[in-house]
Structure formats: C-alpha cells, structure tokens
C-alpha cells in the first residue's frame, strides 16, 4: 500500500493514501495530537519561551507584580504583628514568611519548568518549619508552657482529634496537661520539618539520577510523607484543644497555615494526576503536563496573595483579645460573688448583735 507523509512543524507522520486524501482534517488532528504528546514534560527554557511567545512578558510582569505585593504585605503584617507579639518576633516572622516563599517557589517553576521538584521541596519545607514555629506561638499566647499547665488545672488532654478521631485511636489514653505531655507534642510537630527534609533529599537524588526512577519511586515514598504530616497535624490539633481550654483562640492562625499546606500538597498532587487521567489538548506547542503545572503555579501565587491579606487582617489584632475578655468576665463574676458574700456576712453580724442586745 502506498503511503504518503505530511510534514507538520518539522515532524513527519505516516498515513495511508486513501486516509490522507479523503480525511485530511482527521489526519491533521492525529498529527497534532501525536506532536503535542511528543513534547518534553521538562522543556528547556529556550523552547519553553519560544512556545509562550508574547505571553512570556505578560506572565513575567504579572508574577513580579504579585511578588512585590506579597513582600509589601509581609513587612506591613510583620510590623503590625510585632506590636502584639513582642516576645515571639522570630516565630511570627517565620510563620508569615511562608506566603512570599511559596509564591516565589511557584514563580520560579513558571519561569524554569525544570526547577519544579526543587521549588516544591522548598515550598513544602517552609510550611513544615512554619508549623513548628506556630506551636511556640500557641504556647506564647497562653503565657508559656508553665502558665498553660497552671490554667489547665490538671485537666486531661484531648487525643481524639483530627486526623486521629476514630477507631483505633479511640483507645488512646488521655494524659493530663503537663509539661512532659507538651514536650511530646513539640516532638510530634518537630518531626515534620526533619522527616520532610530527609524525604525530599532522597527525592531530589532520585530526580537528579533519573526522571523515570523518580516517577516510579514516588508512589512508595508517599506513605512516609503522609504519615509524617498527619502525625504532626495531630500534635498541632491537640495543642489547639489544650490552648482553647484556657481561653486562647489560635485556631484562625492555624487554619491559615493549614490552607497553605493543602495548597502545596493536595493542589500540587492534583496537578500531577490530571494530565494522566485526561487527554488534554495541546496548547502553545507545550506538553499538557507543562501547561497544567504552569496554571497551577499561577493559581497558587494568587492564593498566597489572598491568604496574605487575611493574615494581615488577623495579625493586626492582639492575640489575647478573646482570652482577656474571658478573664475580665471571670474577674467581674468573682468580684460580684465576693461583694455578695461580704454583704451577707455584714447582715449576719448585725443580726447577731440585735440578738445579743435583746
């Protein structure tokens, strides 16, 4: 059978003559699809910028604008927060830095697709470190570990919290809120940045050795990543419960860090799975995987900007505002009860004096 070949963008696809002559549109579609998925999922910067063409400057300028806005918001939030967190300046600076760091990592991935694995490692490690510093902010909001233990009054620590809130975690003991139990919570949170750093060093070694080896091995590494993160979140949730029992309200600040963790883990994971599950069209002579990761990193930068705005509003108010109100109410009630007791005592004394005179 005679075959003809049609060239498209420098590549050649063979097709039967009767198919090529009778169905040219279908042949063109097949040619485009094959060419699209023949592109590299890790293109070099030259071919990447050539495919983006005029969109390169648009993406670059928008990314620079968002990064500058995030840096301005970071320093504005830090200045406002330091007025209320004088004893935890370093912890506040580290926790608030995750928004520009994660956005910068996403921007680097947009500019250099081959730096995606390194950028993901930096973004996720920054969130783990911020979670550890947030633990110290929770203790500082309660007045320190000793003050937290004293306010708890020997109450038991709630261990049945997310992500360990159902069987078999129901059989876990509930220790008293003591300095020793708070130290164990600290170790649970501390293992996150340490374990994640070790795991990502292994991932980067596999990625540098062979891309296929990295892809095939990542499935076996995921359970260790999940176990480390879930145990750390469990320790943070128990700390939140213990702090809330004393009148502190650190849940909103913890939610902000949790949202960043969801974005850098779950959202990035979805971006990796989508090109494998769906046959996506070819856009701008780029592999669909590259386009999906580019869109995901753009979205991540926008999300960091929105979360940074929320952090600015949250950290501008004093942390112990709610706790102070609770204490004021308790003091007022105690004063009322003391006054009533004194009045009743005076009344009894007067009644006894009247009885003696009679």
What do these coordinates show?
This protein is mainly α and 358 residues long. It is 75% helix and 3% strand. A two-stranded antiparallel sheet has the order 1-2. Strand 1 and strand 2 form a beta hairpin. Helix 5 (89-96) runs antiparallel to helix 7 (116-141), helix 7 (116-141) runs antiparallel to helix 9 and helix 7 (116-141) runs parallel beside helix 10. The longest helix is centred in the C-terminal third of the chain and has 37 residues, at 321-357. It is globular, with a radius of gyration of 30 Å. Residues 1-34, 321-337 and 354-358 have low confidence and may be disordered.
What descriptors fit this protein?
2 strands, 358 residues, 3% strand, disordered N terminus, mainly alpha, two-stranded antiparallel sheet
Mean pLDDT: 79
Low-confidence stretches: 1-34, 321-337, 354-358
Largest sheet: 2 strands, antiparallel
Total number of β-strand segments? 2
Give a brief description.
By secondary structure, this protein is mainly α. It contains 13 helices and two strands. The chain has a two-stranded antiparallel sheet with strand order 1-2.
Spell out the blueprint of helices and strands.
Elements: E1 3-8, E2 11-16, H1 17-22, H2 24-36, H3 45-52, H4 55-82, H5 89-96, H6 98-111, H7 116-141, H8 145-152, H9 179-209, H10 211-244, H11 251-277, H12 288-315, H13 321-357
Antiparallel strand pairs: 1-2
Helix pairs in contact: 4-5, 4-6, 4-12, 5-7, 6-7, 6-12, 7-9, 7-10, 7-11, 9-10, 11-12
